[in-house]
Amino acid sequence: MSTTQLSPKLFACSQSTELAQKIAKEFNAELGNVKTTHFSDGEFQPAFEESVRGRRVFIIGSTFPSADNLMEMLLMLDAAKRASARHITAVMPYFGWARQDRKDKPRVAIGAKLVANLLQAAGATRIMTMDLHADQIQGFFEKPVDHLYASTIFMSYIESLQLENLTIASPDMGGSKRAYAYSKYLASEVVICYKQRKKANVIEHMELIGEVEGKNVILVDDMIDTGGTLTRAADLMVERGAKSVRAICTHPILSGSAYDRIENSKLTELIVSDTIPLKKEISKIKVVSCAPLFAEVMRKVQSNTSISDQFLM
């Protein structure tokens, strides 16, 4: 049998096993066997329990903290390279360290560029990810990058809500491009939140640019970490007369007291994807799976067909 006829193999990093299982089911394949040896000092060694020689390999794993998750991805990429896999795609629904995409003050690292270098050095021949914190991170790679947009999976849910007087909002100036893309597709108005920070994750002041009175507002962002920005924006919008405020965030990092903030806020609902597993379930959080999107794009990568029809906007 020629190598072009060999079926691809899918493997999961331990932190993303549940999502990888969903993707494999949509892809109509079984996850490959990986055995991880753990040493007493915390070191670990993943090993493929089946041949990948001449195969296209998809390694699925989001690289949210701890750093062990990134290290596991790197080790599995290296293992696939050394086992003579033909193509190795790092499927990273959430690309960690993406917030460190530039030098915003002296003497700091550009973490996103460092991670890109590490992935390529480890053996990735292609990167597949969704809603990068900054689009330009694609330029950090010398390998092809399939940058998917969560709007593809969220849009049908927004439309199912059938909200009148819909307004799309961005929680900060940096997300205005994303908000305008949603508003253009939905033919709605846009509101921008202007915020000033004392330091990371601490907001000093927030103001709205635009009107929300009598509107059903949907805030859109690429991630939610502590939840401080979104919950404060929601509370401010309700104070200014918004009928309801929902938030759509692709990556539910949800660290610190984020869950309590969301539960106690004036947010009607927080809609997220499953790029990062939730630490707990609460009534205000709705999860929309990204597995069908990744499985479809992986299928098209395997067959060397265009993925352009996967982009709604």
Task: Write a compact overview of the structure shown.
The longest helix has 16 residues, at 67-82.
Explain what the structure shows.
- Helices cover 29% and strands 27% of the residues.
- By secondary structure, the chain is α/β, with parallel strands linked by helices.
- It has two domains: 3-148 and 292-307, Rossmann fold (3-Layer(aba) Sandwich); 151-289, 3-Layer(aba) Sandwich (Rossmann fold).
- It is globular, with a radius of gyration of 20 Å.
Overall mean pLDDT stands at 93
Beta strand %? 25-35%
Q: Kindly, what is the distance between the CA atoms of the first and last residues, rounded to a whole number of angstroms?
A: 41 Å
Could you give the order of the helices and strands? EHEEEHEHEEHEHEEEHEHEEH
Overall domain count: 2
Proportion in helices: 25-40%
Radius of gyration (Å): 20 Å
Strand ordering within the main sheet: 10-9-8-11-12-13-14
Count of distinct strands? 14
CATH class of the largest domain: Alpha Beta
CATH fold assignment of the largest domain? Rossmann fold
Largest sheet: 7 strands, mixed
| Outline | globular
Task: Name the CATH architecture of the largest domain.
Answer: 3-Layer(aba) Sandwich
Return the structural class.
Answer: alpha/beta
**Residue windows where pLDDT falls under 50 for at least 5 positions:** none
Number of helices: 8
